[in-house]
Amino acid sequence: MTAHAWTLAFAFLILGPLLGALLAGLDRILTARMQSRRGPPLLQPIYDVLKLFEKDTLVVTSLQTLYLWGFLLFMAISGFILFLGGDLLLSLFALAVSGILLCLAAYATNSPYSNIGSSRELMLMMAYEPMLLIVPLGFFLVTGSFRVSDIIAGEPWQVLELGGILIGFLFILTIKLRKSPFDLSSSHHGHQELVKGLTTDFSGSDLALVEIGHWYENVILLGWLYLFFAPLGVAWALPISLILFFGEVLVDNTHARLKWAPTLRLSWWVTGLFGVTNLVLLSLFA
Amino acid sequence: MSFITKSPWILHYAATSCNGCDIELLACLTPHYDVERFGIVNTGNPKHADIFLVTGSVNEESRKVVENLYAQMPDPKAVVAIGACALSGGIFRDAYNVYGGIDKVIPVDVYVPGCAARPEAIIDGVVQALAILDERAKERKRQRKMVAA
């Protein structure tokens, strides 16, 4: 571990939420422009969270706050490992634990909306986890290591070898970012069939924790996307991954919400067709 | 200034209204008026909301819902009554089956007149509610400090 890696990891812990908030703000402006609206200011997500800390927190069960802190903690751990250049698999497992803790928090409250939301979230985890697991396996077959520092130091054409896995990852990125057509567990907009899904029973500082966790998640997912292009150097990798990241906004605005069964079927088809095929080809020829 | 004025989330409920005011209210969200530029978001969830927008003359059925939604909103919060019916009962005022006004049921902070209320008037009402919310947020902060001390 170099001093540079430690700096990057601690920078993630402190600046990660800020960067994630800017990504979320840009997302909202882009969405507004696509609907020919002006949209909120760039810092709107930060105003929202600061406001939530001013509000009272209605506690349904004291467990919910504990679970939400767990969600935030494991999200931070996942990103810390990623930006330290550590083991990609370990980062993935921390991300999965944090997702489970969010579901537990929603299950702990007794609103039927949040219960249905967390059931759907678990279903979505079944949909995206296989593909998310294939990503580190693909990197391992190409670079011979699960360590992020080794993947970054890989060959520039590794993204070509991992083309199918990249397509699969972009597909499940839509689920991870809770975008349409896969926003069935917790939508960004009110007035929908599930109210707010997972977050229905959280208010005040509890909801703020969920938002900060999502900011971390934005940066982590952008980091994963960056890994595919990392050997090209920052000048190429960062613009490409940002363009692909915000491509999700276009998908969000042009698709209606799917039900859970087609979501599961579709994502496993994509995982099999692109992810697994890519893995098999890599292990045969690499 | 507190941050609640920069990010007021709204809960909308039609308490036995004819939906005229509701259509005008939803028009505020469309590209022409686009209230999201002020950070206003229409949430469907009382636990996330800061401002309660109610239309209609309120009858016995909707009274329970209005009271319930109001109770579920965390402080600081404000209520805006929209349209003639929400203010006084409007043309239904003398009808035996309506309460005639939101303030017969829950405390109202801002009254937006009109049949139906214009989107500009509704936005103006929300802006006036922001000043009240700002006061309440400061008061709440003071109360929390007193409890902690």
Automatic annotation (TrEMBL), chain A:
Transmembrane segments: 6-26, 66-84, 90-110, 122-144, 156-175, 224-246, 266-285
An MF annotation (GO) of this entry: lyase activity
Top-rank taxon, per record: Bacteria
InterPro entries: ComplexI_Subunit1, NADH_UbQ_OxRdtase_su1/FPO
Pfam families in the cross-refs: NADHdh
Heme in keyword set: no
Main localization of the protein described in the UniProt heading: membrane
Record localization: Membrane
Record key words, sorted: Lyase, Membrane, Transmembrane, Transmembrane helix
Protein name as catalogued: Formate hydrogenlyase subunit 4
Signal peptide: none
GO cellular component: plasma membrane
Membrane topology qualifier: Multi-pass membrane protein
PANTHER family the UniProt entry points to: FORMATE HYDROGENLYASE SUBUNIT 4 (PTHR43359), FORMATE HYDROGENLYASE SUBUNIT 4-RELATED (PTHR43359:SF1)
UniProtKB/TrEMBL annotation, chain B:
Keywords: 4Fe-4S, Iron, Iron-sulfur, Metal-binding
NCBIfam families in the cross-refs: PRK06411.1 (NF005012)
PROSITE patterns reported for this sequence: PROKAR_LIPOPROTEIN
Domain of life per record: Bacteria
Keyword ATP-binding: no
Gene Ontology molecular function terms on file: 4 iron, 4 sulfur cluster binding; metal ion binding
Pfam families registered for this protein in UniProt: Oxidored_q6
Domain called NADH:ubiquinone oxidoreductase-like 20kDa subunit: residue spans: 18-128
SUPFAM superfamilies xrefs: HydA/Nqo6-like
InterPro entries to which the protein is assigned, alphabetical: Complex_I_20kDa-like (IPR052375), NADH_UbQ_OxRdtase-like_20kDa (IPR006137)
The protein's required cofactors: [4Fe-4S] cluster
Protein name: Ech hydrogenase subunit C
Coiled-coil ranges per UniProt: none
Cleaved signal peptide residues: none
Family affiliation: Belongs to the complex I 20 kDa subunit family.
